[in-house]
Amino acid sequence: MSEQFEPKIVAFVCNWCTYAGADLAGTSRTKYATNVSIIRFPCTGRIDFMLLMKAFENGADGIIVSGCHPNDCHYTSGNFHARRRWIVFRSLLDFMGFDTDRITFSWVSAAEGAKWAGLVDETTQRIREKGAFTDFKKLDCSTFEKISHDAITE
Amino acid sequence: MARIGVFICHCGENISATVDVAKVAEKAGKLSGVAYSVDYKYMCSDPGQTLIIDAIKEHKLTGIVVASCSPRMHEGTFRKAAEKAGINPYFCEMANIREQVSWVHPKSDATTQKALDIVRTMVEKVKKNTALTPIKVPITKTALVIGGGIAGIQAALDIANAGHSVIMVEKKPSIGGHMSQLSETFPTLDCSQCILTPRMVEVAQHPNITLYTYAEVEKVTGFVGNFEVTIRMKAKSVDHSKCTGCGTCWQKCPSKKIPDEFNEGMGFRTAIYSPFPQAVPNKPVIDRDHCNYFQKGKCGVCQKICPAGAIDYEVQDEFLDVKVGAIITATGFDLKHADFFPEYGYGQFKDVIDGMMFERLASASGPTAGEIRRPSDGKIPEKIVFVACAGSRDKAKGIEYCSKICCMYTAKHAMLYKHKKHDGDAYVFYMDIRAAGKDYDEFVRRAIEEDDVHYIRGRVSRIYEKNGKLIVKGVDTLMNGDPVEIEADMVVLATAVIANQDAETVAQRMHISYNKHHFFAEAHPKLRPVETNTAGIMLAGACQGAKDIPETVSQASASASKAIGLFSSNEMTREPIVAVVNRQAPPNFTSCTGCMLCMEVCPYHAIEREEMKDRTGNLIKVAVKVNAGLCQGCGTCVAMCRNKSIDLQGFSNDQMLSEVMALLNS
Amino acid sequence: MRIGFYPGCSLEGSSKEYSDSLFAVAEKCGIMLEEIKDWSCCGASAAHNLNHDLALALPARTLALAEKQGFEEVVIPCAACYSRIAGTKQEISNNVATRKKIERYIDLTLEADIKILTVFEFLQKYIFPVADGHIVNKLNQKTACYYGCLYSRPKETAALEQIENPMEMDKVMVKAGATPIDWAFKTECCGAGFTMSRTDIVAKLSGKIIEDAADRGAESIIVACPMCHVNLDMRRPEIKKQLNKEINLPVLFITQALGLSMGIPADQLGLNKHYVPTDKVVTCIVKKEA
Amino acid sequence: MTPLQNKVAELFENGTISLMIGYKNAINKLAVPCFIDHATQVEQLIYTPECKGNLSVYLHKAEIKQAKKIGILANIATLRSLVQLTSENQLSDIEKTVITINAQNEVLVFDNMEKVEEYVQANFPEYTEEDKKLLEQLNSMTRAERWQYWSEQFAACVKCYACRAVCPMCYCSSCTVECNQPQWIKVSSETTGNLEWHTMRAMHLAGRCINCGECGRICPVGIPVHLLTAQMNLDIEKEFGSKTGFSCNSGYALNTFKPEDKEQFIK
Question: Nearest CA to C145 among C119, C127, C112, C122?
Fold first, then answer.
């Protein structure tokens, strides 16, 4: 059997719900894929869309963004602001032709260790099926090709 | 130049069983900026901490990364160690390689690699850390206790007796909660009201306690030590400062057929009422939904006859703003009611009742004056079947948990029945008998051995009526799984303990977490069982999970001690995880353009307008600043700010971007 | 839209009248049902006790064929077939690895997104909206609606809203003008699994069901499962021995009862194929008041 | 003298304004901005269909702000930017008189923002037919085709930041694109950096852009960058019901929320 592609996935999660939910998956010894590593933020409201862009630029194949369920935000409303930002950001990416299926958005509470594990496995599987994210890399190559092509034809 | 120390913990075998810790330590040692790297069996132990402290001193480390458990576990421990070694505690970061690596992945190269990735990420973060100083905030030494059941009563008395002010809010017309409805209490069979009523009176008379009944918490803002709470005082329609509690009004009220909640609908009350004779305060309120005056616009009897002139139909709900330093949530529980058990005919057959109804039947102050009679025809039942675990521990019903109190109260119910009807038959269907408290098992044995209650281990599949009897079909798993059919006169279902209907709303108002069954979540299931994740908000009683009275009282005292501890100093220190607006040399002062769009996103109103003026007082620039006392560090403003003029200490742009880059570039 | 139909073995054999009456009702209401071509056994009788993969592969093959033949919905009137196929669909759609494995076995690809309709769902969705125009008679009697176990268990694939006290069939009978009784035996065991091997147990369990229905004044029992029907209808001699009395309560399929209310002749509905005579049901019919 | 010139001369003479920002003729029949500080210069002022530039962009310039009493000739897009800028607290220290010419060719003078807001709301512009057509074309493409389209467009970007310079909403004194601690966006004009720049620009302007289209018009390599924010504004209006440059009090969809905001993608 050929070696299967193992994607690199970065999870941007809030400290109070999803991070705690991921800890709960740990204390419950729920097993899940090793492909996802967490970066902890105080709140989903803190997650800058630029960080998502930088993650893709630096070689992430997929991203998980997760925080408290609506109404459950430790800071009252950070997740509501984040939700609006994601709605807009996602539609911008889609309009630019970016494959938004590479980003999983979710709400995982501190009590949902099993949901977290499932989410990681499901996302890993989906990204595995999609393969490595190369759109950005191809982009740079094609620029150089175009430039050199232009240079030659001139 | 950064000199970072990396400390990899084995956590006994918790980490080292699946992660090659030696390899992680070795590879981490080669990372740029890492001056020292080591692995050790227990970093959090005394020798472990000493190892860290010595290494910081010996290798002149500027920052450390401890790769071990979740920062929720030991961040404080290691920050203190860093401080002891003479560096700013905020130069310590933790790499969570236990909860998020070793416990969730099998032993493999990928697991070790992930641990290393996380270590590298945190090394890059700590390089960007800055020295931070904790923030001091004053404390309002008043506690708010939400709920006036036994949990709230105990907590309020403890705090008040320690010399602090307490505000108690109870949504019903009287305090007392479910405990006031109980007949006798296990395992001693002493009368519930006899032990509770003195406590209720003490609350009402305590100089440090302000009691608001018929009131609810509407809004909570602020933070530990400095909460601002809005209380809705529901219109009682009776001026309690004038009312003497003489009772003339409820004797004369013409609306007499309102199902009595206190008696679980098995008796009637009037529209102007005090819920029970020992109520505190023992002064009535008008239930406007059932009052002729409010519904039909005519009546007014109570106003005419009130000798004190206390009836006021015009009064409206009022709102009261209070400042408190700590909040104790003691909002209690509810029982699963009808419709939940179509197979048991609960809600369909009058003589299939729940445990709380049985308490009222058995209570001397209840609708039958303590005689156990069938609700349908008032006859004394010859045979009663008690069904434990009605709904609890039943995945198909969506409730996996054990309601904890049913085994004991069912034994008590069977005993009470047998004590009153000596020749009656009592059957108990049970799954397991969980009688783990002090004197509890002895109590159950007494029911079985002395009072001759028939215990059948098995579940009931169906209850139906035939020829005036309730046919209870079940199974006896200790008799080869034989089907059992009992013709009973009455069935008592020990229905599941559930969270209050409005628990979710309450939690959302307080910004505390709750589990999927809407029981409030404690900060740590073992080590912080009475605090919530929101600092300054504590839990007491069954709002956190099913509990009996002794356990509820213990937890209430525990949360009271947390509040008292908080009130023992005049100010407290807070994590300096707050947002700051950058500063630049004049004439810029800051890169903030003063668009003020961030002001609206701040849930704490911590962002304020700031005017920059020259020496002569001319306005040069308008920008914003963050009030560090109010800021709670969510960082929503940071992600909102277009030109990154606001940053969050501890989770700065530089730190977060470094983490992303480090995680992905091995 | 084309609606697929999966008969399974019973509807072609012992319960032919279930199939006949379903088609008669559907035809009356102008609904076309199309049999899935080349369907195979659902594996209900033994496969799931022998080999789990086989138990999945058999229904999966039928589902894959249905998908290939372009059906979005399939009606499965037999409760046992429903249980097997719905269970398989659930297991396959929850687990990619299982799906891949089963696809290999059956050599067909499978989306497992096809909608499976029980007879209740089919009636509710397609017949109810047009039924009023076709119902000309009133079934003037008390009926006991008996659901059995396979529609209500396991919880994950249960086709009933309230598994402990289902009402789906009761609603259909109200439509047909009958008065369903409230009774406690709706989901009791009829002894189905022992229908051949231990007829004594069947007699005991089915006997209780029939006895309680009769005691509560039911004049017929309505079922939607071939197995229930066999046990309640065919095992009367054994039941008579067990109860020490003869109960002549006819057992009808839900579609037969509905068909009668639509004025479809009894023979066309297969009412002549029962062991317990069904005349009393036929004679109780009155014209529906306009 | 045209009615516009007369009006401006009058404003200078009665001391209402001390500086006027308007348009004048230039070569190739172009209209370029002009700044006049005396009634005698009003004859330069024109208002033709060529007067497309969004003059509100000059209000951020320190040298303009010094003038204290500023008159500004505003087409509808400029009026919307003035409204949006007011909601973002950017015009509070400027004493301004806004002049516009309506469809009936009447010269209107607004001495406060409430009146501007009222006029904008009554004359709220639609997207141009050309933009509508382009957006429709892009939206009817497959995702991969769109990616191809924008990749090619951004490959041409030389990061001259003309789109930023011309934008009335890009008023930050220092921009994140110039931030090098941390370095958010690569300096060189290679394509991922270009993509990041345009993504960031679109996100920062989503819900704030007033659709003047200047960024697209001014781009030296012809990238229709204005379509990004145009599409975002459509989405925002659809999702949250808010319009940009519409109200002086609340202008921004992304610093507020409704608990009932809907989405389909969060699991």
Answer: C119
